[in-house]
Design goal:
With 435 residues, this protein is α+β, with helices and mostly antiparallel strands. The chain has three domains: 207 residues, Rossmann fold (3-Layer(aba) Sandwich), CATH 3.40.50; 85 residues, Dna Ligase, domain 1 (2-Layer Sandwich); 112 residues, ATP-grasp fold, B domain (D-amino Acid Aminotransferase, Chain A, domain 1, 2-Layer Sandwich). Helix content is 25%, strand content 33%. The strands form seven sheets. A six-stranded antiparallel β-sheet has the order 17-22-18-19-20-21, with helices on both faces. Strands 23, 24, 25, 26, 27 and 28 form a six-stranded antiparallel β-sheet that branches. A five-stranded mixed β-sheet has the order 5-2-1-6-7. A hairpin with a 5-residue loop joins strand 9 and strand 10. Helix 7 packs across helix 8. It is elongated and about 80 Å long.
Length: 435
């Protein structure tokens, strides 16, 4: 059975060539190495002791000692591009993924749709030179894995981005995962159709007209209006119906990001105000779940689910977000929320229950959600899931995001980056090595 052997590589930015460390005890050092899709010979020289090691960019990878020794994984981060075709996106995130590749074993580069040469089957990719704090251009073959990290829907929906994604999806031997952003309405629809998942979904409908809002307020005293194609709490509105003189209360975030309250006795005036605050997106209207709280501040779970080195869904982390105050309409940190630990929050909210038992329920539910969504969508490799817990201890699924943001908890962040590389190793070597 072929074995995976760790190797240390060096890229020379000045000469634009690759070297392998001769001190490593591996049979691969004296053989021709191949990488990318289709398998391409790597022009690589052997270094005993480089004259100027600080000028070289060190990397780690794996070699499968098969008939043709395969070097990998080669991971291309698909990024948005500026008007001139240059790299655009979350550079610190790209650097962190590349650093994880250096530690675990994976060659990672970032690229844009216009940097792909489909005729020569080469990509002009960017790698980060930490010593000189600069990005370096290098020519790569097509990668084993294309990791879609285009940062927003506007750039992802561009013709050049969609063409690039579709071509890689159909290219033999290449795995592109996380094809695109989720749509909240579609996620809810898919999960609601499952008898196992339906009980965890708040009632949710399309919001097109005033009548849609009125119908939901007949069944629920509070509802949320959410953009179907947005995240980070942007454009969210809450409406509460009471028996006061002005029965309709609307909460929303003003342009200064301050939580604002609007009261009216007239539903037509309410709808007019709502229309003024909506962002450019289709909307859903969703039953408001009374969340469990600590010190009157509601909280919910952020759960990171990723594929591991065996290609199976695993929980990479579970965090708690606590709202800034009792009337907050979201627990997002940029909107005033704060991070806390499950142990601390759950002990306060449910003193007679074991926090570990509650978190296990949340984790099992999120694994089931990931498996269900993967049945509907093209290959997925990761997602974050927002799960609520009401005062009775019942779980609720609010949404899932196909491109998880950075988790602020250091241990979760470390696992998040590592799983990207480990899953790439699985995707690269699964056809060479038996499972």
């Amino acid at each position: 059975m072929p074995a995976l052997v760790p190797v240390t590589l060096f890229f020379d930015p000045e000469r634009r060539n690759w070297h392998i460390c001769s001190k490593e005890q591996t049979d691969a050092k004296c053989q021709k190495l191949y990488w990318g899709v289709p398998l391409t010979h790597v022009n690589m020289s052997v270094y005993n002791d480089p004259q100027n090691p600080s000028a070289l960019l060190p990397m780690k990878a794996k070699v499968a000692l098969a008939a043709r020794p395969v070097l990998g994984p080669l991971v291309g981060i698909l990024s948005a591009e500026s008007r001139d075709g240059s790299l655009k996106g979350n550079f610190s995130n790209y650097q962190a993924i590349m650093q994880a590749g250096k530690k675990i074993g994976g060659i990672v580069f970032a690229f844009t749709p216009s940097s792909v040469d489909w005729v020569k089957r080469k990509i002009s990719g960017k790698i980060f030179d930490k010593n000189n704090n600069q990005w370096v251009t290098c020519s790569f073959p097509f990668p084993n894995v294309v990791y879609n990290r285009i940062q927003d829907r506007r750039h992802e929906n561009k013709k050049s981005s969609q063409s690039c994604i579709q071509r890689f999806l159909s290219y033999p031997g290449i795995t592109l995962y996380n094809r695109g952003f989720f749509n909240k309405r579609e996620i809810i629809r898919v999960l609601s159709q499952s008898p196992q998942m339906n009980k965890y979904i708040p009632e949710t409908n399309i919001l097109v007209s005033e009548a849609d809002l009125i119908n939901m307020l007949k069944r629920h005293k509070a509802v949320y209006l959410k953009p179907a194609n947005d995240r980070l709490g942007s454009g969210i509105i809450r409406v509460i119906k009471s028996h006061s003189l002005k029965p309709y209360t609307m909460h929303y975030y003003a342009e200064n990001k301050e939580l604002t309250k609007y009261n009216t006795y007239n539903v037509h005036q309410l709808w007019k105000k709502i229309r003024q605050q909506m962002i450019d997106s289709s909307y859903i209207v969703q039953q408001a779940v009374p969340l469990a709280a600590v010190s009157t501040c509601p909280f919910d779970f952020r759960v990171l689910v990723q594929k591991n080195r065996q290609g199976r869904w695993k929980i990479s982390g579970l965090g708690i977000r606590v709202a800034g105050h009792s009337e907050s309409i979201t627990t997002h940190v940029p909107r005033g929320g704060r991070i806390d630990t499950p142990q601390n929050v759950l002990q306060q909210a449910f003193p007679h229950k074991k926090p570990a038992q509650i978190t296990q329920r949340v984790k099992r539910l999120c694994i089931a959600v990931a498996k269900k969504l993967e049945q509907q969508y093209h290959l997925l490799g990761e997602m974050s899931i927002d799960v609520g817990l009401d005062s009775n201890g019942c779980l609720w699924i609010f949404e899932a995001n196909a491109k998880p943001m950075k988790f602020d908890e250091p241990e979760i962040r470390k696992k998040q980056l590592g799983q990207v590389i480990r899953y790439a190793q699985f995707l690269t070597f699964r056809k060479i090595l038996p499972r």
